[in-house]
Design a protein that fits this description.
By secondary structure, this protein is an alpha/beta fold. The protein has a domain of 184 residues: Rossmann fold, CATH 3.40.50. 42% of the residues lie in helices and 19% in strands. It is built from 11 helices and 13 strands. An 8-stranded parallel β-sheet has the order 3-2-1-4-5-6-10-13, sandwiched between helices. It has a 3-stranded mixed β-sheet with strand order 7-9-11. The protein has a two-stranded parallel ribbon with strand order 8-12. Strand 4, helix 4 and strand 5 form a beta-alpha-beta unit.
Length: 294
């Protein structure tokens, strides 16, 4: 039995699809089962609730061979509260029920100079450290920025803009959620691996945000420019959306670490390289959203 958290999310839904295609026995932890497609609902077991709740993970992990773990991007007082403290009931349930394999979505940054000062990324690394104490074999899928994050700027893109605090010309890795899902499912299906390590999951290219805007322009057929924000402006906007000052600062610290080079430390020689380029993702995942299929 494989347990999947966040099964309706950007990554989790791809994990579920791959597991069902492989005819695996799957149990889903989901807050709102009505969000599951009926075709999925008919093939899985469902445990309703949040995987941050002890009673929920205790039910879900009984008899489980493997778990896909992802902390949802829930606004929290601090980065540690959103990651380590959220995962603590899950780690205790994994230990109690003897879960043998855990695949967890995390960030790049381990074993870099920024490991302990990268805000939300640091919280995610410490969350993986907690899951490693369960005694399970653990694979941390160490991730850069998601290509899919561009969907959060749909309205701005329609007006010819993309925003961010990272320097326009700083080249960074980006990856598609579909490729992360495929990588996670691969580890969950073939559980011949052991030990505890992080494995980067990267896209084919390193691109700057100015280059991303140029690609979006080409794909949608209208000019889009990347507008460089200050980190103070970025933090103010995050707080205006309801984040606490500490949690918004966690994002600032993480993005600043990326700009300084944290994500560039990942070795492409040992990484999983996804098949989806940013251009391909934009053509298939962004264009119709922006242009309405025109």
């Amino acid at each position: 039995m494989i347990v999947v958290t966040t099964p309706t999310g950007n990554i989790g839904r791809h994990v579920v699809r791959h597991l069902l295609d492989a005819c695996e026995a799957v149990r889903l932890i989901v807050r709102d089962p009505s969000k599951l497609a009926q075709g999925v609902r008919d093939q899985v077991e469902v445990v309703e609730g949040s995987h941050g709740e002890a009673a929920v993970v205790d039910r879900a992990f009984q008899g489980a061979d493997a778990v896909f773990w992802l902390c949802p991007p829930t606004p929290s007082p601090t980065p540690a509260a959103a990651t380590v403290e959220f995962a603590r009931p899950g780690a205790e349930a994994m230990r109690r029920h003897g879960v043998r394999h855990v695949v967890v979505a995390t960030t790049l940054g381990r074993h870099t100079p920024w490991q302990d000062g990268a805000g939300n990324a640091t919280g995610s690394i410490h969350m993986v450290d907690l899951l490693r104490t369960t005694g399970a074999a653990v694979r941390g899928l160490a991730l850069p920025a998601f290509m899919d994050n561009a969907l959060r700027q749909t309205e701005a893109i329609r007006q010819g803009k993309m925003f961010g605090p990272i320097h326009p010309d700083k080249k960074l890795p980006h990856t598609a959620a579909r490729d992360i899902g495929a990588a996670a499912a691969g580890f969950l299906i073939d559980r011949s691996w052991s030990g505890q390590e992080d494995v980067p999951v990267l896209g084919p290219d390193e691109l700057s945000y100015a280059q991303l805007a140029t690609i979006v322009s080409d794909v949608i057929g209208r000019e889009v420019r990347y507008e460089h924000q200050t980190y103070d402006a970025y933090k103010d906007a995050a707080m205006a959306r309801g984040l606490t000052s500490a949690f918004a600062q966690g994002y600032v610290d993480m993005l600043r670490a990326k700009e300084e080079g944290m994500d560039n430390f990942a070795s492409r020689a040992t990484a999983i390289i996804g098949a989806t380029s940013f251009r391909k993702w934009a053509e298939e995942g962004l264009k119709s959203v922006i242009t309405g299929g025109v």
